[in-house]
């Protein structure tokens, strides 16, 4: 991991959860840094709170569900 990427991820980790922020207008912290799968772009990361990251309504939680 390059120094620049490390700094970028550090900055992202300081941001509020993007889902909470855009959907409800609230700033939820702390967040986990979620890697968006964009090949060849290390910097495609998004701050997500634990619920929106791995919770029942989270990006990883939704993927596990077959509906
Ligand atoms: Zn959230
Ligand atoms: Zn993730």
* Cofactors, ions and other ligands in the entry: zinc ion
CATH architecture heading: 2-Layer Sandwich
Q: How much of the polypeptide forms β-strand, as a percent range? A: 5-15%
Structural class: alpha+beta
Mean pLDDT value = 85
Give the neighbour order of strands across the main sheet: 1-2
CATH class: Alpha Beta
Helix-residue proportion: 40-55%
Helical segment count: 4
- CATH topology description: Herpes Virus-1
- Please report the distance between the alpha carbons of the first and last residues: 37 Å
Q: Sketch the major β-sheet.
A: 2 strands, antiparallel
C-alpha Rg (nearest Å) = 13 Å
Order of helices and strands: HHEEHH
Protein name: Recombination enhancement, RecA-dependent nuclease
Organism: Nitrosospira multiformis
């Amino acid at each position: 991991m390059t120094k620049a990427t490390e700094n970028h991820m550090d900055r992202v980790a300081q941001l509020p959860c993007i889902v909470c922020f855009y959907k409800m207008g609230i700033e939820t912290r702390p967040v986990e840094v979620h890697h968006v799968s964009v090949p060849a772009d290390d910097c495609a990361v998004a701050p997500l709170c634990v619920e929106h990251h791995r919770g029942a309504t989270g990006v990883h939680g939704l993927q596990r569900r077959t509906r």
